[in-house]
Amino acid sequence: MRAALTAWLGLALGTPAGAQSASGASFRFSAEAGAALKSMWKESVEAHQERVACLAADIRGDTVFVSRVHRVSPDAADSMGVSATASIEQCGPPEWDGTVHTHVALYTDDSPSQRFSGQDRTAMQMWYDRWRADGVFCVAYSEQSAHCEADGVVGGMRSRPRYVH
Fold first, then answer.
1. How far is Cα of residue 100 from the mean position of the Cα atoms in its chain?
2. How do residues 96-135 score in pLDDT, each as one tens digit?
3. In this structure, is residue 70 part of a structural domain?
4. pTM for this structure?
5. What is the span of the domain harbouring residue 74?
6. CB of 41 within 8 A of CB of 57?
7. How many other C-beta atoms are found inside a 10 Å radius of the C-beta of residue 140?
8. Which of 2, 22, 47, 152 has the fewest C-beta atoms under 10 angstroms from its C-beta?
């Protein structure tokens, strides 16, 4: 089962913040993670290119707590500035639990896409295939908002054991 929700990142103040899904699961971001995401968003908007980073997260009860963010270099990137291969190889267990990337290209007249694209889902599946572990993934679509998903979280309990090699 996958917990999915739109998260309020609390980036403007860099304070821990979160949002809850219908199942009661929530995402929260440390001040450090929020500041890193705010910086990544600003750079992404200025460059008119997507940016990607690794996420370190812990599941505490029914909450996914994102504690750290580490930027992935846009080297060997596609036209939007994201290399799925680089993020998959650099953002795996045990140090990292998934990825976050920005959506800055307009999807409607005034807003980027607020959900994962088909290409995003393919990259997520590649991450699962490579690491064979539960993952945490977010797409930031404004300075303070993101859509996040965590695989394997059901009512605060992992739906299957986490395998890390």
1. 3
2. 999 999 987 666 667 767 788 888 888 888 999 999 888 9
3. yes
4. 0.76
5. 2-158
6. no
7. 28
8. 22
